[in-house]
Amino acid sequence: MLFLIFAVGVALAMFAGSLAIMEFGRRLGARRLSAEGSAAMAGLSAVESAVFALMGLLLAFTLSGALQRYDERRALIIHEANAVSAAYDRLEMLEESSKTELRAKLRTYVSGRIELYRLPIGFSAVENASVYDATQLANISKVRTELWDGAVAACSRAPTTSPCNLILPALNEAYDAARERAGANERHPPRIIYIMLFGLGLGGSLLAGFGMGASEKRSIVHMVTFAAAMSLALYIITDIEFPRQGLITVDAFDKFLEQALNSMK
What pLDDT, in 10s, does the model give residues 4-58? Predict the structure, then answer.
């Protein structure tokens, strides 16, 4: 909820700021036009084109990067589901007593991982990062340690090392997949990129308004459309970068991890 308020607040600030600066630019352009005539606008199109081109490129690359990271986060969910399923299957090679206990712990671990993303996720605007439930993280870490220690102990009692050469790497792969997901969730563009987007949006609004100074009446449709387009683009980019807290989420892909858990019988 905090993230949604933050993202919508930034988008609304862009919308209001864009309209205000566009109106200021329109009056500034009209004043200059009345003072200097049509010659006042000569040569300005090159500057406007350069600024709008830069703004378009920055929006395109930022949105493209956000979508790429979004797809990567979805792929990592499937990767973790495959990793825990493989680890569960390979525990079959242990003796009955060890196999039953370790499989139960692995189910608990996977269940905890699923629950972690169902619990409320906070947001730190200062750190530009998501904040997960500390208690749940501690529980997952405890079960993970117990599972690993149990597997190592069971391998030390095994008559041959062949099963453990498959089991331990599989468990390690499952843990690595979880860490990769955590890392991917914290991968965002540098904060300066958002500042540049916001600044270029306001700068573009000023130039757009200045160009409207040639008309005696303001065009509300054009002003609102331009401001809304910039605000919507900024919100969508921000929302995609945090796909567990906004309106655009990867929650649907959790079903693969849930299916992996349901298959652990």
Answer: 888 899 999 999 999 999 989 888 887 877 766 665 555 567 778 888 888 889 9
- Nearest Cα neighbor of 206 from 43, 39, 58, 44 is 44
Among all chains, which residue has been given the structure tokens 């036009």?
A: 33
Q: 87-98 as b/e, with b when 16 or more CB fall inside 10 Å? A: bbebbeebeeeb
63-71: Cβ within 8 A, 24+ apart: 63/233, 63/236, 63/237, 63/240, 65/189, 66/189, 66/237, 66/240, 66/241, 67/240, 69/184, 69/187, 69/188, 69/240, 69/241, 70/240, 70/243, 70/248, 70/250
What does the pLDDT read at residue 50?
A: 85
| Angle CA 98–99–103, to nearest 5 | 115
CA distance 248 to 225: 23
The alpha carbon torsion through 34, 38, 42, 46 (nearest 10 deg) reads: 80
pLDDT at 242: 87
Residue 56 CA from chain centroid, whole number: 21
CA distance linking residue 12 with residue 89, whole number of Å: 51
Q: How many residues does the chain have?
A: 265
User: Residue 177, exposed/middle/buried by CB under 10 A (0-12, 13-18, 19+)?
Assistant: buried
- pLDDT tens profile 186-231: 888 888 988 999 999 998 888 888 877 767 677 888 889 999 999 9
